[in-house]
Amino acid sequence: EVTEKLEGVVMIWIKQIRQVLVESEQMRREADDIGPSAELEHWKTRMSSFNSLLEEIKSSRVKKIISILQAARSKTLKPWKELDGNITIAANEAKDNVRYLYTLEKFFGPLSKASPVTMMEHVPSLMNTVCMIYHTSPYYNTSDRVTSLLLKITNQMINTCKTYLCEG
């Protein structure tokens, strides 16, 4: 009877965690003119969410319930372990992406506040940094991810030029 109740609790957790994972994989709806700082903020938020979820999963309360179900050889443990692994992967991806995107942060100021001429002085090092991220990041090395990042960088450059023209 206790095992059944605990299995019910774990099944609720599994359902909730699956929902979090599904939502995290859905396409993001973003404004057409957002800059690269929004990319960093997205991954920081995602890292925080998944790290909190990992902390909860690793808590003593959850570990006790899982160990009881292991002793009872519950069938709910297989999907639980799979989700635990998926959350760990998602948390690692977010942490890694934040680490790599922080290398771009030094360009956010020049991209958003400089004149077009000054901004262009930073473009070669910015592109080298994006290239480094693409070649070394285990998660940010897809065409989709880099295209999205370059689009945001371009948006920021366009917004900066618009502002410059309107002020001049």
Automatic annotation (TrEMBL):
<dbReference type="InterPro" id="IPR013594">
    <property type="entry name" value="Dynein_heavy_tail"/>
</dbReference>
<dbReference type="GO" id="GO:0007018">
    <property type="term" value="P:microtubule-based movement"/>
</dbReference>
<dbReference type="InterPro" id="IPR026983">
    <property type="entry name" value="DHC"/>
</dbReference>
<protein>
    <submittedName>
        <fullName>Dynein heavy chain 8, axonemal</fullName>
    </submittedName>
</protein>
<feature type="domain" description="Dynein heavy chain tail">
    <location>
        <begin position="4"/>
        <end position="166"/>
    </location>
</feature>
<dbReference type="GO" id="GO:0051959">
    <property type="term" value="F:dynein light intermediate chain binding"/>
</dbReference>
<dbReference type="GO" id="GO:0045505">
    <property type="term" value="F:dynein intermediate chain binding"/>
</dbReference>
<dbReference type="Pfam" id="PF08385">
    <property type="entry name" value="DHC_N1"/>
</dbReference>
<dbReference type="GO" id="GO:0005858">
    <property type="term" value="C:axonemal dynein complex"/>
</dbReference>
